[in-house]
Amino acid sequence: DSKDQKTYFLKIHAPWEVLTKYAAVLNIKAPFKESDIQHGQDAHLEWLSYPFRLPDHIMHPKPDYFTYPFDKNKVGFFLINDKETFFPPSTRNRIVFYILARAPYYSEGRKDREKTGIKRLLSNGTYTAAFPLHDCRLWKIARNAKCESERFNLYKHWARFLCFYKEQPLNLIKKYYGEKVGIYFAWLGFYTEMLFFAAVMGVICFTYGVLSYGDNKSSALILHCIFSQLPDVFNKVAENDFKTR
């Protein structure tokens, strides 16, 4: 259906058989055993991080797993509780795009074998756009009770200015946008956190300099010389600009 009766919409869904086939082709790693490696935690100072944490129903804390490249012939080897949620949305989108990017649309027996892939169809105007669908609207919870409303949770607890002091839901970011985007924001969060300490030291040094400005004769003399020469500098700049014109 479309308003102009000329535009058509095509919705693509990848069934389980297709996902397992191309997951093996792309060597997508899947969990097969829960990790037994212990992570050290400082329980005495754990309460300090409570104001910066997100609730468990947003973070969905899960244990670490050992992973192995997926093999459709060894489905029983992997921890598959639900086929609908075993592959996250980012992985499903990656598989579908991989298929579309290599799908030929030439007739059998023809020599124009360069007619391959969704990108070529987009460039020649056959399709106006091709994109993955979001799970729900970002400002409302999904109508389907089974839907986790991941986009809504990301918008409410991550992509807002008032949540700048909260931890990032990296598991949800990785699940929804993929590993590359998740790693980027993990690095960005660490980088910003390290800059915080440098900013605090900078503010302390700046405040001390302002408060001790009157007692420092060298700084006062330097500033006096700079500001006394500013009118001559501005006059020379204006004169040179006038000559240029």
From TrEMBL:
Presence of keyword Signal: no
Localization terms from the record: Cell membrane; Membrane
Domain Anoctamin transmembrane: start-end pairs: 173-227
Presence of the UniProt keyword Membrane in the record: yes
Pfam families linked to this entry: Anoct_dimer (PF16178), Anoctamin (PF04547)
Occurrences of domain Anoctamin dimerisation (ranges): 3-170
Keywords, sorted A to Z: Cell membrane, Glycoprotein, Membrane, Transmembrane, Transmembrane helix
Highest taxon above the source species: Eukaryota
Topology versus the membrane: Multi-pass membrane protein
Regions crossing the membrane: 184-211
Family statement drawn from the similarity comment of this UniProt entry: Belongs to the anoctamin family.
PANTHER family: ANOCTAMIN
Protein name, UniProt field: Anoctamin
